[in-house]
Protein backbone atom coordinates (compact mmCIF):
# COMPACT_ATOMS: atom_id res chain seq x y z
CA UNK A 1 0.00 0.00 0.00
CA UNK A 2 1.42 3.36 -1.05
CA UNK A 3 1.64 6.35 1.28
CA UNK A 4 -1.10 8.20 -0.56
CA UNK A 5 -3.57 5.30 -0.34
CA UNK A 6 -2.81 4.82 3.36
CA UNK A 7 -3.45 8.50 4.04
CA UNK A 8 -6.77 8.32 2.20
CA UNK A 9 -7.75 5.24 4.21
CA UNK A 10 -6.94 6.96 7.47
CA UNK A 11 -8.94 10.02 6.46
CA UNK A 12 -11.97 7.86 5.65
CA UNK A 13 -11.67 6.10 9.01
CA UNK A 14 -11.47 9.41 10.88
CA UNK A 15 -14.54 10.71 9.06
CA UNK A 16 -16.44 7.56 9.98
CA UNK A 17 -15.52 7.90 13.66
CA UNK A 18 -16.51 11.58 13.66
CA UNK A 19 -19.89 10.69 12.16
CA UNK A 20 -20.47 8.13 14.88
CA UNK A 21 -19.45 10.54 17.64
CA UNK A 22 -21.84 13.23 16.32
CA UNK A 23 -24.85 10.98 17.18
CA UNK A 24 -24.01 9.60 20.61
CA UNK A 25 -26.25 6.97 22.13
CA UNK A 26 -28.65 8.29 24.79
CA UNK A 27 -27.40 7.38 28.25
CA UNK A 28 -29.54 5.01 30.32
CA UNK A 29 -30.11 7.68 32.98
CA UNK A 30 -31.53 10.08 30.42
CA UNK A 31 -33.81 7.39 29.01
CA UNK A 32 -35.12 6.61 32.49
CA UNK A 33 -35.66 10.32 33.18
CA UNK A 34 -37.60 10.69 29.93
CA UNK A 35 -39.74 7.69 30.83
CA UNK A 36 -40.49 9.12 34.28
CA UNK A 37 -41.34 12.47 32.71
CA UNK A 38 -43.83 10.75 30.40
CA UNK A 39 -45.49 9.04 33.35
CA UNK A 40 -45.73 12.33 35.26
CA UNK A 41 -47.26 14.02 32.20
CA UNK A 42 -49.86 11.26 31.88
CA UNK A 43 -50.67 11.51 35.59
CA UNK A 44 -51.05 15.28 35.32
CA UNK A 45 -53.42 14.95 32.36
CA UNK A 46 -55.50 12.33 34.17
CA UNK A 47 -55.81 14.46 37.33
CA UNK A 48 -56.79 17.60 35.41
CA UNK A 49 -59.32 15.68 33.31
CA UNK A 50 -60.91 14.15 36.40
CA UNK A 51 -61.10 17.58 38.04
CA UNK A 52 -62.86 19.01 34.97
CA UNK A 53 -65.34 16.13 35.00
CA UNK A 54 -66.09 16.67 38.70
CA UNK A 55 -66.47 20.45 38.29
CA UNK A 56 -70.14 20.37 37.13
CA UNK A 57 -71.06 17.89 39.85
CA UNK A 58 -69.30 20.13 42.38
CA UNK A 59 -71.36 23.16 41.37
CA UNK A 60 -74.56 21.10 41.51
CA UNK A 61 -73.67 19.71 44.93
CA UNK A 62 -73.03 23.18 46.35
CA UNK A 63 -76.33 24.39 44.88
CA UNK A 64 -78.24 21.42 46.29
CA UNK A 65 -76.62 21.77 49.69
CA UNK A 66 -76.82 25.56 50.05
CA UNK A 67 -80.01 26.38 48.13
CA UNK A 68 -82.27 23.50 49.13
CA UNK A 69 -81.01 22.53 52.56
CA UNK A 70 -80.99 26.07 53.96
CA UNK A 71 -84.41 27.53 54.81
CA UNK A 72 -83.52 31.18 54.27
CA UNK A 73 -81.84 30.45 50.98
CA UNK A 74 -84.78 28.37 49.79
CA UNK A 75 -87.27 31.13 50.64
CA UNK A 76 -85.04 33.56 48.79
CA UNK A 77 -85.03 31.20 45.80
CA UNK A 78 -88.81 30.84 45.47
CA UNK A 79 -89.72 34.40 46.56
CA UNK A 80 -89.75 35.85 42.99
CA UNK A 81 -92.50 33.40 42.03
CA UNK A 82 -94.97 35.45 44.09
CA UNK A 83 -94.44 38.38 41.70
CA UNK A 84 -94.35 36.40 38.48
CA UNK A 85 -97.43 37.27 36.35
CA UNK A 86 -97.80 33.79 34.86
CA UNK A 87 -97.63 32.13 38.27
CA UNK A 88 -100.04 34.70 39.72
CA UNK A 89 -102.57 33.99 37.00
CA UNK A 90 -102.32 30.25 37.58
CA UNK A 91 -102.77 30.60 41.34
CA UNK A 92 -105.63 33.10 40.96
CA UNK A 93 -107.48 30.79 38.56
CA UNK A 94 -107.19 27.84 40.91
CA UNK A 95 -108.18 29.82 44.02
CA UNK A 96 -111.17 31.33 42.22
CA UNK A 97 -112.25 27.90 41.05
CA UNK A 98 -112.04 26.58 44.61
CA UNK A 99 -114.16 29.45 45.97
CA UNK A 100 -116.82 29.11 43.29
CA UNK A 101 -116.92 25.32 43.61
CA UNK A 102 -117.62 25.62 47.33
CA UNK A 103 -120.29 28.33 46.93
CA UNK A 104 -123.25 27.33 44.74
CA UNK A 105 -123.88 30.79 43.36
CA UNK A 106 -126.26 29.60 40.66
CA UNK A 107 -128.45 27.63 43.06
CA UNK A 108 -128.39 30.24 45.82
CA UNK A 109 -129.23 33.05 43.40
CA UNK A 110 -132.07 31.10 41.79
CA UNK A 111 -133.61 30.15 45.14
CA UNK A 112 -133.31 33.68 46.43
CA UNK A 113 -135.01 35.15 43.37
CA UNK A 114 -137.83 32.59 43.48
CA UNK A 115 -138.41 33.32 47.14
CA UNK A 116 -138.45 37.01 46.41
CA UNK A 117 -140.90 36.55 43.53
CA UNK A 118 -143.32 34.67 45.78
CA UNK A 119 -143.61 37.56 48.17
CA UNK A 120 -147.21 38.97 48.24
CA UNK A 121 -146.15 42.58 47.90
CA UNK A 122 -144.18 41.93 44.67
CA UNK A 123 -146.06 42.92 41.54
CA UNK A 124 -146.75 40.07 39.13
CA UNK A 125 -144.71 41.67 36.40
CA UNK A 126 -141.65 41.92 38.63
CA UNK A 127 -142.14 38.43 40.00
CA UNK A 128 -142.11 37.05 36.48
CA UNK A 129 -138.86 38.86 35.64
CA UNK A 130 -136.92 37.98 38.78
CA UNK A 131 -135.93 34.38 37.86
CA UNK A 132 -134.30 35.62 34.68
CA UNK A 133 -131.84 37.67 36.71
CA UNK A 134 -130.15 34.55 38.12
CA UNK A 135 -127.50 34.29 35.37
CA UNK A 136 -126.47 37.97 35.33
CA UNK A 137 -126.26 38.07 39.12
CA UNK A 138 -124.19 34.87 39.16
CA UNK A 139 -121.80 36.23 36.56
CA UNK A 140 -121.47 39.46 38.47
CA UNK A 141 -120.66 37.65 41.72
CA UNK A 142 -118.11 35.47 39.91
CA UNK A 143 -116.49 38.54 38.39
CA UNK A 144 -116.41 40.20 41.80
CA UNK A 145 -114.83 37.10 43.34
CA UNK A 146 -112.20 36.88 40.59
CA UNK A 147 -111.36 40.55 41.01
CA UNK A 148 -110.88 40.18 44.73
CA UNK A 149 -108.66 37.12 44.25
CA UNK A 150 -106.54 38.92 41.66
CA UNK A 151 -106.13 41.89 43.99
CA UNK A 152 -104.98 39.64 46.79
CA UNK A 153 -102.55 37.72 44.59
CA UNK A 154 -101.04 40.95 43.21
CA UNK A 155 -100.76 42.65 46.61
CA UNK A 156 -97.68 42.77 48.88
CA UNK A 157 -99.74 40.80 51.37
CA UNK A 158 -99.63 37.81 49.03
CA UNK A 159 -95.84 38.06 48.71
CA UNK A 160 -95.55 37.96 52.50
CA UNK A 161 -97.99 35.06 52.68
CA UNK A 162 -96.07 33.24 49.95
CA UNK A 163 -92.82 33.55 51.90
CA UNK A 164 -94.47 32.34 55.10
CA UNK A 165 -96.02 29.34 53.39
CA UNK A 166 -92.72 28.36 51.79
CA UNK A 167 -90.79 28.87 54.99
CA UNK A 168 -93.16 26.56 56.87
CA UNK A 169 -93.09 24.08 54.00
CA UNK A 170 -89.31 24.00 53.58
CA UNK A 171 -88.87 21.03 55.86
CA UNK A 172 -91.40 19.21 53.75
CA UNK A 173 -89.34 20.04 50.64
CA UNK A 174 -86.33 18.40 52.22
CA UNK A 175 -88.45 15.39 53.16
CA UNK A 176 -89.72 15.26 49.58
CA UNK A 177 -86.22 15.23 48.12
CA UNK A 178 -85.24 12.60 50.67
CA UNK A 179 -88.17 10.45 49.49
CA UNK A 180 -90.64 11.30 52.28
CA UNK A 181 -94.03 12.95 51.61
CA UNK A 182 -96.69 14.88 53.44
CA UNK A 183 -97.30 18.35 54.77
CA UNK A 184 -97.63 21.50 52.72
CA UNK A 185 -95.60 20.08 49.84
CA UNK A 186 -95.91 16.52 48.63
CA UNK A 187 -95.10 14.41 45.62
CA UNK A 188 -97.79 12.37 43.91
CA UNK A 189 -96.08 10.16 41.37
CA UNK A 190 -94.23 12.62 39.16
CA UNK A 191 -95.80 15.84 40.54
CA UNK A 192 -94.67 18.27 43.23
CA UNK A 193 -97.64 20.22 44.66
CA UNK A 194 -98.00 23.19 47.00
CA UNK A 195 -100.92 23.41 49.43
CA UNK A 196 -103.04 26.54 48.73
CA UNK A 197 -105.13 26.21 51.92
CA UNK A 198 -103.65 29.28 53.68
CA UNK A 199 -104.09 31.40 50.55
CA UNK A 200 -107.74 30.32 50.17
CA UNK A 201 -108.37 31.22 53.82
CA UNK A 202 -107.03 34.71 53.16
CA UNK A 203 -109.29 35.09 50.12
CA UNK A 204 -112.26 33.97 52.19
CA UNK A 205 -111.61 36.60 54.84
CA UNK A 206 -111.16 39.28 52.17
CA UNK A 207 -114.50 38.43 50.50
CA UNK A 208 -116.35 38.52 53.81
CA UNK A 209 -114.75 41.86 54.63
CA UNK A 210 -115.92 43.23 51.26
CA UNK A 211 -119.55 42.33 52.06
CA UNK A 212 -119.81 38.95 50.32
CA UNK A 213 -121.14 37.10 53.36
CA UNK A 214 -121.76 33.88 51.41
CA UNK A 215 -118.00 33.36 51.37
CA UNK A 216 -118.20 32.47 55.05
CA UNK A 217 -119.74 29.17 53.95
CA UNK A 218 -116.47 28.15 52.27
CA UNK A 219 -115.03 25.26 54.31
CA UNK A 220 -111.36 24.68 55.01
CA UNK A 221 -109.97 23.48 51.70
CA UNK A 222 -106.59 21.87 51.04
CA UNK A 223 -106.22 22.63 47.37
CA UNK A 224 -102.87 21.82 45.75
CA UNK A 225 -100.99 23.94 43.26
CA UNK A 226 -98.66 22.03 40.94
CA UNK A 227 -95.18 23.50 41.32
CA UNK A 228 -93.25 20.91 39.30
CA UNK A 229 -94.46 18.04 37.16
CA UNK A 230 -91.86 15.86 35.53
CA UNK A 231 -90.99 12.21 35.10
CA UNK A 232 -87.55 12.95 36.61
CA UNK A 233 -88.81 13.51 40.17
CA UNK A 234 -87.73 10.05 41.31
CA UNK A 235 -84.33 10.45 39.69
CA UNK A 236 -84.02 13.92 41.24
CA UNK A 237 -84.63 12.46 44.68
CA UNK A 238 -81.82 9.95 44.22
CA UNK A 239 -79.53 12.59 42.74
CA UNK A 240 -80.23 14.92 45.65
CA UNK A 241 -79.41 12.23 48.16
CA UNK A 242 -76.09 11.59 46.39
CA UNK A 243 -75.19 15.27 46.27
CA UNK A 244 -76.32 15.84 49.85
CA UNK A 245 -74.07 12.99 50.95
CA UNK A 246 -71.09 14.47 49.13
CA UNK A 247 -71.93 17.95 50.36
CA UNK A 248 -69.11 20.44 50.10
CA UNK A 249 -66.45 17.72 49.89
CA UNK A 250 -66.90 17.21 46.17
CA UNK A 251 -65.70 20.72 45.16
CA UNK A 252 -62.79 20.39 47.59
CA UNK A 253 -61.81 17.10 45.97
CA UNK A 254 -62.12 18.59 42.47
CA UNK A 255 -59.97 21.59 43.43
CA UNK A 256 -57.37 19.32 45.05
CA UNK A 257 -57.19 17.20 41.90
CA UNK A 258 -56.73 20.28 39.74
CA UNK A 259 -53.94 21.63 41.96
CA UNK A 260 -52.23 18.23 42.05
CA UNK A 261 -52.41 17.98 38.27
CA UNK A 262 -50.76 21.37 37.90
CA UNK A 263 -48.07 20.63 40.49
CA UNK A 264 -46.92 17.33 38.95
CA UNK A 265 -46.95 18.71 35.41
CA UNK A 266 -43.68 19.35 33.62
CA UNK A 267 -44.90 22.73 32.35
CA UNK A 268 -47.09 24.04 35.16
CA UNK A 269 -48.13 27.18 33.34
CA UNK A 270 -49.40 25.20 30.37
CA UNK A 271 -51.12 22.72 32.70
CA UNK A 272 -52.87 25.57 34.51
CA UNK A 273 -53.96 27.02 31.18
CA UNK A 274 -55.44 23.71 30.04
CA UNK A 275 -57.10 23.08 33.41
CA UNK A 276 -58.75 26.52 33.46
CA UNK A 277 -60.03 26.09 29.91
CA UNK A 278 -61.27 22.61 30.82
CA UNK A 279 -63.26 23.96 33.77
CA UNK A 280 -64.77 26.66 31.55
CA UNK A 281 -65.74 24.02 28.99
CA UNK A 282 -67.32 21.87 31.71
CA UNK A 283 -69.43 24.85 32.84
CA UNK A 284 -70.56 25.44 29.27
CA UNK A 285 -71.61 21.79 29.00
CA UNK A 286 -73.59 22.07 32.25
CA UNK A 287 -75.28 25.25 31.04
CA UNK A 288 -76.30 23.58 27.77
CA UNK A 289 -77.61 20.58 29.72
CA UNK A 290 -79.78 22.89 31.84
CA UNK A 291 -81.17 24.55 28.72
CA UNK A 292 -82.02 21.16 27.18
CA UNK A 293 -83.63 19.94 30.40
CA UNK A 294 -85.69 23.16 30.61
CA UNK A 295 -87.03 22.59 27.11
CA UNK A 296 -87.95 19.00 27.95
CA UNK A 297 -89.62 20.03 31.21
CA UNK A 298 -91.71 22.82 29.65
CA UNK A 299 -92.78 20.57 26.79
CA UNK A 300 -93.79 17.71 29.08
CA UNK A 301 -95.87 19.81 31.52
CA UNK A 302 -99.61 19.59 30.70
CA UNK A 303 -101.29 22.90 29.87
CA UNK A 304 -104.10 22.22 32.35
CA UNK A 305 -101.50 22.07 35.10
CA UNK A 306 -99.13 24.90 34.15
CA UNK A 307 -98.89 27.03 31.06
CA UNK A 308 -95.63 27.02 29.14
CA UNK A 309 -94.82 30.49 30.43
CA UNK A 310 -95.52 29.55 34.05
CA UNK A 311 -93.60 26.27 33.80
CA UNK A 312 -90.59 28.03 32.28
CA UNK A 313 -90.69 30.74 34.94
CA UNK A 314 -90.84 28.17 37.73
CA UNK A 315 -87.87 26.28 36.29
CA UNK A 316 -85.82 29.43 35.75
CA UNK A 317 -86.53 30.62 39.28
CA UNK A 318 -85.58 27.35 40.93
CA UNK A 319 -82.25 27.04 39.08
CA UNK A 320 -81.28 30.71 38.80
CA UNK A 321 -78.65 30.51 41.53
CA UNK A 322 -77.22 27.40 39.89
CA UNK A 323 -76.92 29.30 36.62
CA UNK A 324 -75.28 32.19 38.43
CA UNK A 325 -72.66 29.85 39.87
CA UNK A 326 -72.06 28.29 36.43
CA UNK A 327 -71.46 31.68 34.83
CA UNK A 328 -69.23 32.85 37.66
CA UNK A 329 -67.04 29.74 37.52
CA UNK A 330 -66.84 29.91 33.71
CA UNK A 331 -65.68 33.54 33.86
CA UNK A 332 -63.18 32.67 36.58
CA UNK A 333 -61.77 29.90 34.39
CA UNK A 334 -61.37 32.32 31.48
CA UNK A 335 -59.60 34.85 33.70
CA UNK A 336 -57.18 32.23 35.06
CA UNK A 337 -56.54 30.96 31.53
CA UNK A 338 -55.86 34.51 30.33
CA UNK A 339 -53.42 35.04 33.20
CA UNK A 340 -51.59 31.80 32.42
CA UNK A 341 -51.40 32.75 28.75
CA UNK A 342 -50.10 36.27 29.37
CA UNK A 343 -47.29 34.92 31.55
CA UNK A 344 -46.10 32.61 28.77
CA UNK A 345 -43.31 32.99 26.21
CA UNK A 346 -45.53 33.72 23.20
CA UNK A 347 -45.00 36.86 21.16
CA UNK A 348 -48.35 38.35 22.15
CA UNK A 349 -47.67 37.68 25.84
CA UNK A 350 -44.23 39.23 25.72
CA UNK A 351 -45.51 42.30 23.91
CA UNK A 352 -48.38 42.70 26.35
CA UNK A 353 -46.12 42.45 29.38
CA UNK A 354 -43.65 44.83 27.76
CA UNK A 355 -46.39 47.35 27.03
CA UNK A 356 -47.77 47.16 30.57
CA UNK A 357 -44.32 47.44 32.08
CA UNK A 358 -43.50 50.40 29.85
CA UNK A 359 -46.72 52.16 30.82
CA UNK A 360 -46.11 51.68 34.53
CA UNK A 361 -42.49 52.75 34.06
CA UNK A 362 -43.63 55.93 32.32
CA UNK A 363 -45.98 56.73 35.18
CA UNK A 364 -43.21 56.12 37.70
CA UNK A 365 -40.83 58.31 35.72
CA UNK A 366 -43.37 61.12 35.58
CA UNK A 367 -43.96 60.88 39.31
CA UNK A 368 -40.22 60.97 40.03
CA UNK A 369 -39.81 63.95 37.72
CA UNK A 370 -42.52 65.73 39.71
CA UNK A 371 -40.54 65.12 42.91
CA UNK A 372 -42.50 62.18 44.27
CA UNK A 373 -40.25 59.49 45.79
CA UNK A 374 -41.28 56.19 47.35
CA UNK A 375 -38.28 56.02 49.65
CA UNK A 376 -38.10 53.07 52.00
CA UNK A 377 -41.59 51.93 51.00
CA UNK A 378 -40.47 51.48 47.41
CA UNK A 379 -37.32 49.61 48.45
CA UNK A 380 -39.27 47.31 50.76
CA UNK A 381 -41.91 46.70 48.06
CA UNK A 382 -39.20 45.83 45.54
CA UNK A 383 -37.61 43.35 47.96
CA UNK A 384 -40.96 41.64 48.69
CA UNK A 385 -42.59 42.06 45.29
CA UNK A 386 -43.09 38.35 44.64
CA UNK A 387 -44.64 37.72 48.06
CA UNK A 388 -46.97 40.70 47.65
CA UNK A 389 -48.16 39.43 44.26
CA UNK A 390 -48.90 35.98 45.67
CA UNK A 391 -50.75 37.56 48.59
CA UNK A 392 -52.93 39.61 46.24
CA UNK A 393 -53.89 36.53 44.21
CA UNK A 394 -54.67 34.50 47.35
CA UNK A 395 -56.78 37.35 48.74
CA UNK A 396 -58.83 37.48 45.53
CA UNK A 397 -59.36 33.72 45.69
CA UNK A 398 -60.52 33.91 49.31
CA UNK A 399 -63.01 36.64 48.44
CA UNK A 400 -64.58 34.44 45.77
CA UNK A 401 -64.48 31.40 48.02
CA UNK A 402 -66.34 32.99 50.93
CA UNK A 403 -68.77 35.04 48.82
CA UNK A 404 -72.23 33.54 49.33
CA UNK A 405 -73.40 33.64 45.71
CA UNK A 406 -70.70 35.16 43.50
CA UNK A 407 -71.92 36.31 40.11
CA UNK A 408 -69.92 36.76 36.93
CA UNK A 409 -69.66 40.49 37.66
CA UNK A 410 -68.31 39.76 41.14
CA UNK A 411 -65.60 37.59 39.57
CA UNK A 412 -64.72 40.25 37.00
CA UNK A 413 -64.57 43.05 39.57
CA UNK A 414 -62.45 40.92 41.91
CA UNK A 415 -60.04 40.13 39.08
CA UNK A 416 -59.78 43.81 38.16
CA UNK A 417 -59.07 44.75 41.77
CA UNK A 418 -56.31 42.11 41.95
CA UNK A 419 -54.79 43.46 38.73
CA UNK A 420 -54.97 47.00 40.10
CA UNK A 421 -53.21 45.94 43.30
CA UNK A 422 -50.47 44.23 41.29
CA UNK A 423 -50.07 47.36 39.16
CA UNK A 424 -49.70 49.45 42.32
CA UNK A 425 -47.08 47.02 43.60
CA UNK A 426 -45.16 47.34 40.33
CA UNK A 427 -45.48 51.12 40.48
CA UNK A 428 -44.21 51.40 44.06
CA UNK A 429 -41.38 48.88 43.68
CA UNK A 430 -38.13 50.83 43.45
CA UNK A 431 -34.78 49.00 43.34
CA UNK A 432 -32.19 50.18 45.87
CA UNK A 433 -29.82 52.85 44.63
CA UNK A 434 -26.45 51.51 43.40
CA UNK A 435 -23.45 53.28 45.04
CA UNK A 436 -21.51 55.48 42.59
CA UNK A 437 -18.06 54.26 41.48
CA UNK A 438 -15.18 55.93 43.39
CA UNK A 439 -12.15 56.81 41.19
CA UNK A 440 -8.87 55.19 42.14
CA UNK A 441 -6.62 57.48 44.17
CA UNK A 442 -2.84 57.60 43.72
CA UNK A 443 0.05 59.77 44.90
CA UNK A 444 -0.50 63.41 44.16
CA UNK A 445 1.63 64.73 41.34
CA UNK A 446 4.63 66.77 42.39
CA UNK A 447 4.46 70.45 41.71
CA UNK A 448 7.50 72.27 40.60
CA UNK A 449 8.34 75.88 40.08
CA UNK A 450 6.93 75.83 36.59
CA UNK A 451 3.68 74.08 37.45
CA UNK A 452 0.49 74.99 39.20
CA UNK A 453 -1.46 72.81 41.58
CA UNK A 454 -4.49 72.67 39.25
CA UNK A 455 -2.48 71.96 36.17
CA UNK A 456 -3.26 68.77 34.45
CA UNK A 457 -0.36 66.42 34.18
CA UNK A 458 0.19 65.41 30.61
CA UNK A 459 1.84 62.02 30.31
CA UNK A 460 5.16 61.87 28.57
CA UNK A 461 4.82 60.76 24.99
CA UNK A 462 6.86 57.70 24.27
CA UNK A 463 8.16 57.69 20.73
CA UNK A 464 6.73 54.92 18.70
CA UNK A 465 8.92 52.54 16.87
CA UNK A 466 8.98 53.29 13.14
CA UNK A 467 7.15 50.87 10.99
CA UNK A 468 9.10 48.35 9.01
CA UNK A 469 9.94 50.11 5.76
CA UNK A 470 11.78 48.13 3.15
CA UNK A 471 15.33 49.40 2.74
CA UNK A 472 16.20 50.98 -0.60
CA UNK A 473 18.14 48.72 -2.89
CA UNK A 474 21.85 49.00 -2.40
CA UNK A 475 23.56 50.65 -5.29
CA UNK A 476 26.06 48.52 -7.07
CA UNK A 477 29.33 50.04 -8.25
CA UNK A 478 30.24 48.92 -11.70
CA UNK A 479 33.82 48.41 -12.71
CA UNK A 480 35.16 49.82 -15.82
CA UNK A 481 35.04 46.56 -17.57
CA UNK A 482 31.31 46.09 -16.64
CA UNK A 483 30.29 49.46 -18.00
CA UNK A 484 28.68 49.59 -21.30
CA UNK A 485 29.75 51.65 -24.26
CA UNK A 486 30.04 55.32 -23.63
CA UNK A 487 27.07 57.14 -25.05
CA UNK A 488 27.70 59.72 -27.64
CA UNK A 489 27.44 63.28 -26.65
Uncertain residue segments: 444-489
Shape: elongated
Largest sheet: 3 strands, antiparallel
Structural class designation: mainly alpha
What is the number of helices?
18
Average of the residue pLDDT scores:
75
User: Percent range for helical residues?
Assistant: 55-70%
With strands numbered from the N-terminus, the spatial order across the biggest sheet is 1-2-3
What's the helix-strand series? HHHHHHHHEEHEHHHHHHHHH
The proportion of strand residues reads: under 5%
Query: Which radius of gyration do the C-alpha atoms yield?
Result: 47 Å
Give the number of DSSP strands: 3
Distance between the termini: 74 Å
Mind sketching the topology for me?
Layout: H1 3-22, H2 28-68, H3 71-78, H4 85-102, H5 105-117, H6 124-129, H7 134-154, H8 156-177, E1 185-188, E2 191-195, H9 197-209, E3 224-229, H10 233-246, H11 249-263, H12 268-300, H13 308-318, H14 320-342, H15 347-369, H16 376-383, H17 385-402, H18 408-428
Antiparallel strand pairs: 1-2, 2-3
Helix pairs in contact: 2-10, 2-11, 2-12, 2-14, 3-8, 4-7, 4-13, 5-7, 7-9, 11-12, 12-13, 12-14, 14-18, 15-18, 17-18
